[in-house]
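W.,

You were right to be curious about this one. When I first looked at the sequence I had no strong expectations either way, so I just let the prediction run and decided to look at it fresh. Below is the sequence, 371 residues in total, followed by the output.
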Amino acid sequence: MKNILILLAISILFFGCGSSAPDKKSELDKLKKEEATLSDKIKKLETEIAASDTTTKIKMLDVEVTPVAAIPFKSYVQVQGKLDADENVNVSAQMGGTVKSIYVKEGDNVKAGQILAELDDAVMRQGIEELKNQLAFASDLYNKQKNLWDQKIGSEVQFLSAKNNKEAMEKKMQTMNEQLDMYKIKSPINGTVDEVSLKLGQIAAPGLPAVRVVNMNSLKVKADIAESYAGKIREGNSVLLEFPDMNKTMDLKVSFVSRVINSMNRTFSVQVNVPADPDLHPNMISHLNIVDYQTLSSIVIPLNVVQNSENGYYVFLSVKNEKGKSVAHKQMVKTGRDYKGQIEILEGLKEGDSLITTGYQDVEDGEFLKF
């Protein structure tokens, strides 16, 4: 019986404690809400009293403001490229032989078809002289056979044989003259001699560099761009071209965009035609700043003044309260593109707004300002 009474007492005590816990939690939540409400009321009253009481010194935060303005805005894709001459040719010999004459030197201007150097063609010329005698004999024989054939003397086979032999000799002479011309190394383009690799007495052979000719009036910059920009880069896009080693910039246009993505590095190529410039040299490094987005008029502000919260992006503006005093106002904004420390604001700001650009880190909504 005694044990039963002890168990009954413990049960009553346990259930009594369990029922009081939710009541205390509800009471605590209620007091916290009352505390927040009272805090807001106190802050509001302090602000109103400070604004109306001229004897009270108002605490004001020192800031700088900038009027919001609508301006043109651009963002760029930045890549590194290389300058190349569209006509940059390493001319080589078409026949093998010993170099007997060199007619140009570095820096000479040459025209298409101009002879740059000659190889020893003595053996070929000797063969041509021998062929000339054979051609002369074949021509005489043909003429005689033709005269006889015109008089109906001799057989047709004799006449046709003489004619065929003469024509074969003429074609062979033509071929040998063309081969003789191949002993001359000629420039295929108009340009400037950039390098002469030949030396007198040296053996030249097809495929080996002989003379480099460059046309500096036809330059272009080539670069590879990641495929993620394939939908943004088009022919005609503006390009700010920089040559860092020459401290030179040019405003140009994209002249070519490849349609194929390189499967190895997932890039596509672009080209920019560059006007002739004596300071530029093939294989120079160039920086391409290609416009991938632009507007004629947008609200643009410094990127660093835009702050982030769980509700989104915001900035602080300076506005006038009902007493005509400047106070801080937290303004939510919708952002667009950003580039080099500037960001486009799509919603939330308008021209003429006073944007706090210095001291914004310490500003609170509704705080008094001075500037």
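Here's what jumped out at me. Residues 1-55 form one domain. And, maybe more interesting for your project: The first strand starts at residue 61 and ends at 62.

Coffee later to discuss?

I.
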